[in-house]
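Chapter review: from sequence to fold.
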Amino acid sequence: MSSAWSRWELRSPLAEVAARYYAEKFWTDASFGELVDAQLREHAAHEFRVWSDVRPYRGTLADVHVLARRFAGSLAARGVRAGDVLAFQLPNWVEAAVCYWGGALLGAVIVPIVHFYGPKELQFILGDVSPRVYVTAARFRSHDYLENLSALAAELADVEIVAVVGGLAPSGMRPFDGLMEGDPVDGAARVDPAMPAVIPYTSGTTANPKGVIMTHRGLEGECRQMTTPIPQLAGRPNLTAAPIGHGGGMLGALTYTLFRGGGTDIHLVDTWQPANILRVLEEGDLSFGGGAPYFFTTLLDAPEFRDHHLQHVRTAGFGTTMTPPAVIDRARGLGIMTSRMYGSTEQPSTTCASFDDAPSKRYAEGRAMPGVELRIVDDAGRALPVDEPGEVLSRGPELFAGYTDRALTARALDAEGWYHTGDVGSLDAEGYLTISDRKADVIIRGGENVSAAEVEDALLRLDAIAEVAVVGAPDERLGEHGCAFLRLQAGTTPPDLEALRAHLAEIGLARQKWPEELRVVDDFPRTASGKIKKAELRAQLRAGG
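The token string follows.
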């Protein structure tokens, strides 16, 4: 078993809470591998396709299931056992599915790594989890993964199997295809359901990415929530562009699709190029169902986008916090039905809205998913009444068991098993959650709190602005002031600070909320899910950049 395990602290829910999850059939003590194996067999005839210029693939779930079973069998023949750590860094290729599903069959602790993470992030993750098996691509676009590995000799020293996809394997490594030659396993290994199953890494609020420990029963809870089809997910198969190495892509592409009533075809694309996405949507008769607002807006803003493409973007489900109302209004204006979900890598499916919700609920994140509990508390941890904003606390059968960093776990999970999200929101009388801010995303200007999200939505009403991020900049007199980073629509003239202020005055935003600094950027630093990395923007301002 991996030496990393001694450093991890796994939190379990209270006994009475766990008993309820069993009674309500969210947990049955099946391993994640057993669930995956059963679903792949049941939906064997569904299509699995990778739309890629470099590694295209077209087959069925049955075909990929055989590859995953062979991969698991080959690793087992080399002594890899349940509980050993299997890490992989691959684009959205079939080999990523083979690693994910094959690792599940083996009972390994699966660590997907975002394919565009560089040596710094990779060094941290490999050192954090101490994998026994590591699978990497040779090259993809501008990324030379093998060159990156040359600087990680210490982290790779104890990795017994390093396999390479799509290129010649250097000395000491092996070609991935060689791991397809073993006898396939017949089924999935039995594993203690309270043990780690998958550890995706998420970034944004800390210097290093955070390892989120998802147990077998936590993943089962997530899958059980998805067994009932959600209306906005019906119709054409979805095209998944989110990286499989990220929690959202891993679940959306390779997990939820198996468990939504009746299953569905799986279609992946390995690059986000709006013109190519539009071509694939038409050729494959697929839908693009949403995700982070960035993916949705850049698709609509593509020069190639035409009215007939709307049949492939008939719905948009936004799965990120604080989707600007301006984005929702734009979609609705085009006849696109919208809904919002709220969740995180730590608790992926916390709330969900419906297309049938009343217009007054359009900007809400929906109501708690089955089995999920929500609380809104003040800074002292006291429960707040209806419609009063405070920090959102949540718990449910799919909640993570902690971070690989014990200190982060202690701050995020309390003694009663509540996850302190760091998000600011409120619950109305009907149980609808509305997220209004991040605790760390409030600008404290002269002692007054300014909601960055409120200012961002107001600025997005300007036609020239495609995307905006407002963050706090150091201010000797006020402590902080607002700095607006703008990404512009193609071919538009950048507005100056006075134009921004005139617009905000016209719509009635209080003067103290107006940005006092303006930066125009070609693009933003982003997480794997497309979210803007505001921490990097703040660091840039603190450094005087």
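Two observations follow directly from the output. Residues 244 and 250 are 4 Å apart (CA to CA). The longest helix spans residues 61-77.
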